[in-house]
């Protein structure tokens, strides 16, 4: 697929979104364009659904969004794009723990070296351009041994009262898995370039984001993946026992936080925030299965497998810092969000999108 780059060279408010045709990236690009900003969505289109997201952006926003097919490992391409934009939303990444185990070198080249290319380009070509970076809660490692959590109904709960509001930003890093290491390196580089080279940066350590335009798979996007498997009437594999807990953040809420971070860059530059749904949107894997059962009207077929390296028995973001800093809070509950993503998937199938053939095949 090829795309014509719109003629927006004269825009003084153009924003570069790396990974701009991925799930969160294309939603951020869309919101910026809706606000009247010109956007360059840079993506290598390697992930399933990225070409379709690119086409969706092009058709919906026309000349307001330019699609640039490029890779953050290409320093020359990054230099050219960074120098021509006024801000960078950096989301391009390898996002799966399992992929990092299979190919740690590529994982590092994308997440570590790719991010360093972006930082160097800003430093050398466009030092006043702010950068908002997508880190991950995986930089905290497992956090708990099995003996440090207890089961309450269908979920684990930590014994330590310090985590009543979730995991705060001062929790020590404990990089676990090649993916955790590569994202942790990038996380710290972004922070350090702010301290040492005075770049205007914000790091957002993301929890589980879900919603429309997510083509969930087993390794990343677990809420969408569970729902997709239920729609296909295929078995859902749970790694571990299913009592593990995550906080879920609907994509519209995530996008609003990202844009709020950019809008407030002068007051929050150099800071790191945990960004997720917080305690009010914490959900175990078993809780999600029950919600899907209520939504779909039947019980999904579930199978269990061994825990995977770096899996956290409990993770909930303490979002008080980001909420106070940018006057933001999540507004969409998991139950509401699940209905919205199911509606999108059903409409997506009817429209003949990238998932349509496999979903329809599964229903025959």
Short description:
This protein has 364 residues and is of the alpha/beta class. It has helices at 23-34, 50-61, 75-83, 97-102, 104-125, 177-197, 222-232, 251-263, 265-268, 285-296, 320-326, 334-350, 356-363; strands at residues 15-18, 39-43, 65-69, 87-90, 131-136, 149-152, 155-158, 201-206, 208-210, 236-239, 245-250, 271-275, 282-284, 302-305. It has a single domain, classed as NAD(P)-binding Rossmann-like Domain (Rossmann fold, 3-Layer(aba) Sandwich), CATH 3.40.50.
General description of the model:
The protein is α/β, with parallel strands linked by helices and 364 residues long. The chain has a single domain (15-363), classed as NAD(P)-binding Rossmann-like Domain (Rossmann fold). Helix content is 42%, strand content 17%. The strands form four sheets. Strands 3-2-1-4-5-8-12 form a seven-stranded parallel beta sheet, sandwiched between helices. β1, α1 and β2 (39-43) form a beta-alpha-beta unit. α5 runs parallel beside α6, α7 crosses α10 and α7 crosses α12. It is globular, with a radius of gyration of 20 Å. Residues 1-11 and 356-364 have low confidence and may be disordered.
